[in-house]
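Why does residue order matter? Because the sequence determines the fold. Keep that principle in mind as you read this record.
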Amino acid sequence: MLHVLRIPLIRRGLIALAAAFVLGLSGAGRAGPAADVTAATAAFDKGDFAAALALLRPLADQGDAAAQYNLAQMYRYGKGVPQDLPEAVRWYQKAALQGDRFAQFNLGVMYDEGRGVQKNVDDAIAWYRKAAEQGDPRALYNLGVIYENGQGVMPNAEQAYVWYSLAAFRFQGGDAQIRARVLQSRDRVAAKMTPDQLASAQQRARDWKPN
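Structure:
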């Protein structure tokens, strides 16, 4: 049984929650006033979630995508607020619709797992694709799993190989263990392909460019 990676992609201030999950706040991207974001990140890192929430919520209400993403993370994991998965989905959605790839990936996971929203593989694929088109490695990997297993799509080893290859290229440095896992997945589907299919998939992976 293959398992989809469920690791929220974090920009800054990592805090380990469990073996496969991390949570953090970001001052990157389309953040609001720099001082507020920096202060929110510092407060979160010190465990002062109430202060982080007080700084983030106004920015999120004003439409700041990075603040919306981080607020979703807090609701998802119950940091500074009671855990509320539907509320997390609501904030992910707001940020995702503005093109935030972190929110798009995590929204895909929520639809994939049926957490805070009714499980919907088609919606999960759609959000993974949006994040993948921006080069998100975890979204690329999840699409590989979906095409290998035929979850909501016809099984397609060639397409799975393309997604796995693209993901492996983007998992570097501290993600070495994850990258090794992705390469194992890529090699597994390669073993099921004809030489022509493999050559075609390799060329497609080389030609692919994120939006």
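Residues 164 and 186 are 5 Å apart (CA to CA).
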